[in-house]
Amino acid sequence: RVILNPGICESRIMLAFMLFTASVGLLVLLIIRRFFPSSSSSSSSLSNSLAPAPAPAGNNRSALAARSGSGLEPDARPIQRLLILYGTQTGTAERFARELDDIVRKKFATSPMKLDVETVDMEQYESRAKAGELANEPFVVVACATYGDGDPTDTAMGTHNYLVKDLPDSLESGHEHEALKGVTFAVFGLGNTQYEHFNAAAKALDKGLDALGAKRLCGMGLGDDDNDIEEDFRKWHESTLMPALVDAGFAGGVDQSKPSSEAAEATLAVPRSLDIAKEDKEANLSTIVASAASFYGTASHRVDATKVVARRELYTYGAGDANARSCVHVELDASALSTANSGSSTPLYETGDHVGVFAVNDDKVVNAYLKRFQLSANSVVRLLRPADAPNALEGPHCTAPVTIQTYLSRFCDLLSFPKKGVLMTLAACCKVDAERVMLLRLSSPEGKGDYKAEIVNKQRSLLQVVTELAPSANVSPGVLLGMLPKLQPRFYSISSASSRHPKHVHITCAVVSHDTPGGRWHDGVASTFLANVNVGDRVLAFIRTSTFRLPSSAATPLLCVGPGTGVAPFRAFVQARVDADERKREELDSPRAASGAAKSMAKMSLYFGCRRLSAEHMYEGELRDAAAGGILRLEVVSSRDGATAPHRYVQDLLARPEDAAAARKALLKDGGHLYVCGDAKHMAADVHRTLVGVLSSGDDGLRDAAEAETWLASASKSGRYQRDVW
Question: What are the residues whose beta carbons fall under 8 Å from the beta carbon of 514, sequence distance 6 or more?
């Protein structure tokens, strides 16, 4: 009897089966080629239709070359190129750009041309723009946000300034219109009508591209975050941009998009999710920061851990005061920080710069998310973006191994209201039909009013939406972490002068704490974080260069308006002027000469306002010392002191006859500089209107309000009128 080894027997049977299968397959292939010679091309087309969307230009071309080298038939269709640029501050412009990428790919999926769509941050594109690459782009769409006082965002600044100013200035007169002659472009701006310079950065870019000879594809979109910027973007790309692309013959002009209802069903069918891989050990903080470079910083920022060296309360409300508020002074040892490309002799920061702080979410909020979504706080994971994910799915905010607790605490915005795309994803996770229908309505164009009333106005967080409106939503960890937006850095005007504190950065932060219309008690993420840091704690931060600068000559008069925490940069200005005065006295080293030193230092006028001077007059001691030394003229006002007195603000002080006359003399006669810092929506606009009246009044004033507006616009352009507003 022969006993066969089971493993050998199984192997022999498998080998025989494989040989038989290969023989049959070869015979079938010969028959197909003999009787159906065109089937190979059909097979190739089917393969192409199932292939992932094409990669950006560089990768796409290398992929084609690789296919040719491997013997596979390359895609012979002509390439239709589209470049999508974005300049973002809070992530919305990036999200719109990525969504547009997906929309274009789907809309022109059956085009006779091969799509080559590339979506790039304007910061990353800067070197390519300066190398002249933009001139070779046939179609360009830009999503550009406006930040601060009408400025482009940090990441867009370099490319924006190059296209609007540097490139035109470098061209020979009369040849400006030839630089981008072959480019067709469209711009969507992201702004807020509550701010004076609504969408100023996008408007300047649109005008600049046109001046360089590029052809405008369609009218510029003006998104308004004070209303419904999501709907503004949807209307623009559906009703303006896409029809314009079709009319321009983009990708052959083929429009095969699905009806909106079908597209919504397709979105519902596959919720966007990140892949989660389990890891054994969490990375250290330096590794986490390095792995999250795109999250924590940009090419112009060096993010590092700074040590807290001081924290104190600035307000002096008594215990039990029902009107008590909080404002903290925090000092960071910024020795580890420096601006990009700075040498060792360069100061860590300049007086007037900003510091960006990456806060950590409050434990109570993080724990609420962990509990509701049944997440294990200490599970160590690595988050990955699926290879077949749509562009609209943002990649993980950190790719290093971290605990779920760390990821939610450091990287995710847990308190902002969810965007409409997130509501659609939640709808797909609902088990109860009524909840799903409601979320779909809130995310639809028809439900615009309901979305604003129930989500925006009530400031409902994602956790609130799931708890109150969609309790049946069964959201997986990958879907949840894929929905949560980035926790953005908070910026603060540095309230110290680099001449006095070269290694330390001072922050003046009002603590945000209030009830929301939706019934949730809201503690500001960054302000609560800073209010609770302890000396010795590490805070991730970076220096952001500002244009808010003192004039080069100390003999230039300064007129500064900074109510509340708007006083922060002016405290720094005062320190710088006092230090300069002391250096001047030391240089003179003579009692007689020293007595005249302060006279050569032009006086700085500071208008400060708060609710109650008795409790909120921050930095009062050092400001009054500077005033006593002849450096500063300090004017203060409170808006809440006195039970029956009408509210008075800094603009009311400026409008007083003696102050108005002093302002006209300083600005119109003596070449003074004007600075405003603080709230952009109300205070800055009110101060500007008051200044128009001040400058156009009196025998020594300008002719009328129109001439005053012209003067202020000119002063702003030349740097004599600067605003650091938010």
Answer: 521, 522
User: Distance between CA atoms of 661 and 454, rounded to whole angstroms?
Assistant: 50
**Position 304, amino acid:** D
DSSP string for 109-174: TT-SSEEEEEEEEHHHHHHHHHTTGGGG-SEEEEEEEEETTTEEPTTTHHHHHIIIIIHHHHSPTT
Cα 355–chain centre separation: 15
Global pTM?
0.83
Rounded Cα distance between 660 and 652, Å, is: 10
Q: Which amino acid is at 544?
A: R
Spatial separation of the C-alpha atoms in residues 256 and 254, rounded to whole Å: 6
Place of tokens 């809440």: 640
- List the structure tokens of 585: 């006295």
Query: What is d(CA 267, CA 274) in angstroms, rounded to the nearest whole number?
Result: 16
Lowest mean pLDDT among 16-30, 113-127, 156-170, 286-300: 16-30
582: exposed, middle or buried (Cβ count in 10 Å: 0-12, 13-18, 19+): middle
Q: What kind and span of H or E run contains 522?
A: strand 521-523
Question: Is the Cβ–Cβ distance between 475 and 426 less than 8 Å?
Answer: yes
pLDDT tens sequence across 303-348: 889 999 999 999 999 988 888 999 999 999 988 776 544 445 567 8
Taking each continuous run of H as one helix and of E as one strand, the counts in the chain are: 30, 23
Query: In Å, how far from its chain's centre is CA 342?
Result: 24
Cβ neighbours of 606 (radius 10 Å): 24
Whose structure tokens read 């028809």? 446
Strands (E), 317-458: 327-333, 354-358, 380-384, 402-403
Q: Confidence class of residue 91 from pLDDT cuts 50, 70 and 90?
A: confident
Q: How many angstroms separate the Cα of 183 from the Cα of each of 50, 139, 180, 202, 211?
A: 31, 6, 6, 17, 12
SS3 assignment for 195-246: CCCCCHHHHHHHHHHHHCCCEECCCCEEEECCCCHHHHHHHHHHHHHHHHHH
Handedness of CA 302, 304, 308, 309 (dihedral sign): negative
